[in-house]
Amino acid sequence: MSTSDAGRRMGTRYTTGKARVIVRGDAVVVLPGEGAGADDAERVHRLWVDLAVPGSGVAEVLGTLTTSAVGGLKGVPPFAVVVLTRAGAGEPASAHVVARGEGLTVTIETGSGAQTVSGAGVISWTERVVEGVTAVEVATGVSGFGSFADGLPVESGVVLAGVVRHQVVEPAEVDESTTLAEPAAVLDTAGPVAPVTPVAPVASRAEPAPVVAPPVPSPAPEPEPEPSPETVAPLGTVTMLPASEETITPVEEGNEPAAPEPEVSPAGDDGPDEDDYLHLWGATVAHGVEAAAVRPESPEEAEEEPAPSAGPVVPPPPAPPAPAPEPAPAAPVSSGADGMISGVPISGVPGWSGATPAAAHRAAAVAAEAEENDDHDGHTVMSSAIADLKAAASSPSAPRFAAPANPNAPMILAVTCENGHANPTARETCRECGSALSAEAALAPRPSLGRMVVTSGAATGGVPGVRGGQVIELDRPVIVGRRPRTSNTSADQMPRLVTVSSPQQDISRSHTEVSLEDWHVLVTDLATTNGTTLLRPGQPPRRLHPNEKELVSDGDVVDLGDGVTLTFEGIW
Amino acid sequence: MNDALTLAWGAASDRGLRRQLNEDGYFAGGGAFFVADGMGGHAAGEVASATALDSLRPLAEIERVEPHHVEALLEEAQERVRAIETSGQGRGAGTTLTGAVVAYLDDAPYWLFVNVGDSRTYLLSSGVLDQVSVDHSEVQEMVDAGTLTAEEARNHPRRHVITRALGGRDEARADFRYIPIGAHDRILVCSDGLTGELTDQQITEILLGHPDPQVAAGRLVEAAITAGGRDNITVIVVDATGVAQETAGSSTAPRGGFADEDTIPRD
């Protein structure tokens, strides 16, 4: 390993490997995940474009990585991002480093030593800002080839790499065994000997089961299952008309309260055999996908192959109990039992004053700008909405509400203050009560991520606020529309449905979705006829791309049309 | 407006032509409509489906049903199905469970759809049939991943392998879905013995051709038997009437089921 060799040269160098690495400007993005899909190519393209903007940094990259993910946080691939801010050529830089996923290790070297940032063991990602950085090295955990002896330089581009190193400051002649011990170790673990399997980004998506067993010989030609001699049983139909209160108990075959005495036929060979024929006729079988073994399931399939042996039908071998992937890292999950307060109603916090100053400022700025821009940019902003915005944003008696804590709140990595308020890990003081945050980051029930004020139109589903507007607590996702519906989802992800009136029928039935990921609030136009417009201070009104998530900032206003706007407050 | 909602339904279930037992079951009443398709050797499937449905009975007593109510009952069902004795041989008992229950969100009537496994619910709205549930099956996952077309999935050898069930090792993890109850909407809850034999087009024609839900349910089962009847077939057809047409201001009759044709484009 001749890291020092490369180290003497400035700039970015890499060893070839399998991870996609995007180098552009002072940013390096490493994506070690499988790079096969079109999604991945699309992601790389977007990141490349993101980084073309001077001054773009971690926020933009994270935005792209999280919004292009399918399936929420689980869908976000492992990645590492390093963005350097330089004081001057050859001077130590400030590095903003983010790492997600088990296999990734970022080693940051400063004048006083080296430290590592790893994505292992956390749910979301690890983020750190380090000053005085002389070099940064990212080991992808996917086996790389070669070493820095033949490390290749890259100034800007997308490469397949095993380890990437960016040398900021030319090192003095140093004893390489000391300073470079750490990266060396990193490289070794990433070496081909012990490749670290990257974490599958989508844990819930069971992949088509690999064929683990050789195809089981087709069962013997199945005896023609005779339709039972007696004629087809009469349809077991009953008509039930809804009685007002009395509960009709439809007693039907198979529907009687099952006497828990299953008929067990005397053990013998007949039972299993019969069972195995039956499955050929369309029986439903439950299978863990990971434990799938191949077995012909349809008569057509079975007939196609000549049965090699007409021996006794052997029940398919029980699939080996595949090691089920751990659903979650064994992070300490604190439950309510050990003193964690599961969600604190904001209204119970003394001194909480509704709209944050930032929200008020931004909303006011939007209103002012919108009025100015009203004529020349072609985007019409409803004046009524602006008036309402102003009212909502500036009202000192902004709505308070006592929404019950969401019992299904997902666990999230947080720092919890002494009063039990969960905060993002990057904060130093509690937003609710101002107390210092010194505790270790741990999983806690996710608190509300802010509020959404429906400033116009008649909405149902929230708590009445100022001037007939409704306040929606962002403790779960929301779908807003004229006649909203949800997609299929688990109970704990079930969105709140907010119905707004739309006399002009301008608003679609399911129009805008507000989703929560990690500590972020995102808004999505649900491919609507008339679109959703984002009003953000300092920017012209912008129509959201259909079905693309947009990160919401405090004070953002979203316009659905027909005078209905959503104002976001108290966003982290 | 709550009083206005009335439901009429019909149900039918048949063993089919190839199977010795009817391991399907259904429950209809009290605003709850569920079908279960049991599996497991030695009649365990029959017991499993009946057990799961029995666990859901309390739904009829709950005034405002929410997903967590259903989830709690499903957990109980899961335990009871797991406890079914299967004599240590063959596959353990398990069952799918799918259906819908009337729920109110801010006084507006909604269907709360629930699904575990590959039995299905459909919504027939304005003449268009849409599948509401998403199968928890291997072939569905392949379709989602783009490696299989829906047509290929119909005849795929692994089409009966489901990835979620009540009674399995893993948590049941039901899907939930809210859809507002529309006037003249009809829902269909069925086991895969129906959808394995009939195409969506055939199902739509039968549903549209028979206004009486009981007749429609019977015809569907008959048609599935005629088409082969390789599995048990169970069908519930529910009609919602008397529900408020739409929210205020919406007068155009929507022509599409899931699409948004009644939204008026801005100039």
UniProtKB/TrEMBL annotation, chain A:
PROSITE patterns: FHA_DOMAIN (PS50006). It comes from Promicromonospora thailandica. Residues 250-267 have a biased composition (Low complexity). The keyword Transport does not apply. Keywords: Phosphoprotein. Pfam families: FHA (PF00498). Residues 205-234, 250-277, 292-336 are annotated as: Disordered. The keyword Phosphoprotein applies. This is FHA domain-containing protein. Residues 478-534 form the FHA domain.
TrEMBL record, chain B:
Residues 8-240 form the PPM-type phosphatase domain. GO terms for molecular function: protein serine/threonine phosphatase activity. Residues 246-267 are annotated as: Disordered. SMART domains: PP2C_SIG, PP2Cc. InterPro entries: PP2C, PPM-type-like_dom_sf, PPM-type_phosphatase-like_dom. SUPFAM superfamilies: PP2C-like (SSF81606). PANTHER family: PROTEIN PHOSPHATASE. This is Protein phosphatase. Pfam families: PP2C_2.
